[in-house]
């Protein structure tokens, strides 16, 4: 009797183990695939954390990432359905939408007050915006860098013709500065910080010029509309990443610090210099960002994007401004996530 009972118990244990063994592949098969594009030359604290800590995996996502040197390079990948979501600046998002790509901004991931800075070489005699006359300024034409530069010149009573604009990618600005090929540059971290470490001095930034800028998550409409469960899991993971960042900034920053090859102290200084804010999803639906449904045109972010549209048209980067500006925003996934989270 005892031996028989032992045999039954053993079989039950084996069956239980088999059931557990089968459960893992089932869970793996249930993982939702999502392809994410990101900019290698940008600081992206929360994305690095969500990837490196396994947060996406925990929420049932099978994430594959594809690096890009800058936002505009992601547009063909979105058009070719090579990626589903992309982290980029506002400029490529407006460019792609205005040129007919079926994409939309999901939310503004971060807003930067001092991340984008105009730095100048003191040896070139530049201490104020007025001193830029006749100088060589490194800019990425058609981008946030270019837009900020023109605003700075206007504030100083100068025009583009009063300076020499040198078209450079952000990563090429520090070498050009060190080589003495430019006197100043308007760009973002980590490249602006690299020039400051070489002696460049900041003389203007987004906040001082009365502007706004930041990073946005953009998605293919077909994906966002067709994969509601995948979007819910992505937003849940991102929501958790935001909460973790508030609770333990050092632990969350460690992942992106490692990616860009900085010590914790160096990376902390960089992030503090950005003056970054990460809007919550509820804040996303306010007038400061995407606005409430039906009120998108009244939002501060929309007015900012419309200003970018006018600039891009003037620079011949787009053929016409979008006729349906509200269509650039898609808050349905966030609304659905918040509704599910409150249940």
From TrEMBL:
- Molecular function (GO) terms listed? ATPase-coupled transmembrane transporter activity
Key words, A-Z: Signal, Transport
Q: What is its main location?
A: periplasm
Q: Which CDD domains did the record assign?
A: PBP2_NrtA_SsuA_CpmA_like (cd01008)
Q: Where in the cell is it found?
A: Periplasm
Report domain Solute-binding protein family 3/N-terminal positions: 33-258
Q: Which residues form a coiled coil?
A: none
List the GO biological process terms.
alkanesulfonate transmembrane transport
Q: Which Pfam families match?
A: NMT1 (PF09084)
Q: Where is the signal peptide?
A: 1-28
One GO location term (cellular component): membrane
| Family (UniProt) | Belongs to the bacterial solute-binding protein SsuA/TauA family.
Recorded protein name is Aliphatic sulfonates family ABC transporter substrate-binding protein
Provenance organism: Methylopila capsulata
């Amino acid at each position: 009797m005892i031996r028989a009972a032992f045999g039954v118990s053993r079989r039950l244990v084996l069956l239980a183990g088999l059931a557990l063994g089968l459960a893992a592949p089932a869970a793996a098969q249930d993982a939702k695939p999502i392809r994410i594009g990101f900019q290698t030359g940008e600081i992206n604290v929360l994305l690095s954390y969500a990837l490196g800590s396994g947060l996406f995996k925990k929420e049932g996502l099978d994430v594959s990432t594809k690096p890009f040197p800058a936002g505009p390079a992601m547009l063909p990948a979105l058009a070719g359905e090579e990626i589903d979501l992309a982290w980029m600046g506002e400029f490529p998002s407006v460019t792609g939408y205005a040129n007919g790509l079926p994409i939309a901004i999901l939310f503004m991931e971060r807003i930067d007050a001092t991340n984008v800075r105009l730095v100048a070489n003191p040896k070139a005699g530049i201490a104020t915006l007025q001193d830029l006359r006749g100088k060589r300024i490194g800019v990425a034409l058609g981008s946030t860098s270019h837009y900020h530069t023109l605003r700075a010149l206007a504030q100083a009573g100068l025009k583009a013709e009063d300076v020499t604009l040198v078209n450079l990618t952000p990563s090429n600005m520090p070498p050009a500065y060190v080589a003495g090929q430019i006197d100043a540059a308007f760009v973002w971290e980590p490249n602006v910080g690299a020039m400051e470490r070489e002696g460049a001095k900041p003389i203007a930034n987004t906040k001082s010029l009365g502007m706004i800028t930041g990073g946005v998550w953009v998605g293919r409409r077909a994906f966002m509309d067709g994969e509601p469960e995948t979007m819910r899991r992505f937003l849940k993971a991102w929501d958790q990443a935001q909460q973790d960042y508030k609770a333990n900034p050092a632990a969350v920053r460690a992942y992106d610090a490692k990616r860009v090859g900085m010590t914790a102290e160096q990376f902390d200084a960089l992030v503090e210099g950005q003056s970054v804010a990460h809007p919550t999803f509820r804040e996303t639906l306010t007038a400061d960002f995407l606005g409430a449904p039906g009120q998108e045109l009244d939002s501060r972010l929309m007015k900012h994007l419309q200003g970018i549209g006018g600039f891009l048209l003037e620079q011949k980067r787009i053929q016409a401004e979008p006729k349906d500006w509200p269509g650039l925003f898609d808050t349905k996934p966030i609304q659905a996530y918040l509704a599910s989270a409150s249940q």
